[in-house]
Design goal:
This is SRPBCC family protein. The protein has about 190 residues and is α+β, with helices and mostly antiparallel strands. It has 5 helices and 10 strands. It has one domain (about 15-180): Alpha-D-Glucose-1,6-Bisphosphate, Chain A, domain 4, CATH 3.30.530.20. The protein is globular and about 40 Å long. The N and C termini lie far apart (about 45 Å).
Length: about 190
């Protein structure tokens, strides 16, 4: 599929939550058909990130040190002074973004890669985070296959067909009310 207007996300899959009080860690796993070196480039190079990720980077993420990540898809870009903590090509990438920690692991699987993301996120946004990364991973897969449809993030993602269904599926899976309140907690 090369037409972004035809894109509809598939069902919620490949995600779990590790809970620690209000701060939860979203864990997403996706098997990609491309080798780790190619996936690494997509995770680290600004020109590649601009095809699928929810932020722009002012430099490559392939080395440790300060980096500026600018969230896209919002009325006003949110600029985050971030830090790449670890960059071990092509297997491990860790950085901060907007007060959260992200860890990417790339594991060779045959001719492809098992990509695992850990993202610390407030539980109030856990189903949105899962849905957002789900869509980003879908777009990443198309980009790696040479069928770029351009990133679908922020408000555009939330307006896309399938967003409400996807956030509701992840909310049920994680035991929260969409967009993220625990289902056994009264509304306040």
């Amino acid at each position: 599929m090369r037409n972004r207007e035809q894109y509809v996300p598939g069902p919620a899959a490949g995600a779990e939550v590790q809970k620690d009080g209000e701060r939860w860690t979203l864990v997403l796993v996706r098997d990609l058909r491309h080798p780790p070196a190619r996936v690494w480039q997509a995770l680290t190079e600004p020109a590649h990130l601009s095809e699928w990720a929810p932020f722009d980077a002012n430099r490559s993420l392939a080395s440790a040190g300060p980096v500026r990540l600018s969230t896209v898809g919002t009325p006003t870009p949110q600029v985050s002074e971030s830090t790449v903590r670890r960059a071990e090509e092509p297997k491990l990438l860790e950085y901060t973004w907007g007060g959260n920690d992200l860890r990417w692991e790339l594991e060779p699987r045959g001719t492809g890669t098992r990509l695992t993301l850990w993202h610390n996120i407030h539980r109030g946004f856990i189903s949105w985070g899962a849905a957002g990364w789900h869509i980003c991973f879908d777009v990443l897969e198309r980009f790696l296959a040479g069928e770029s449809i351009g990133r679908i993030v922020g408000g555009e993602a939330m307006k896309s067909e399938g967003w409400q269904r996807l956030t509701a599926e992840y909310a049920r899976q994680f035991g929260v009310e969409s967009p993220g309140r625990p289902s056994n907690t009264p509304n306040r």
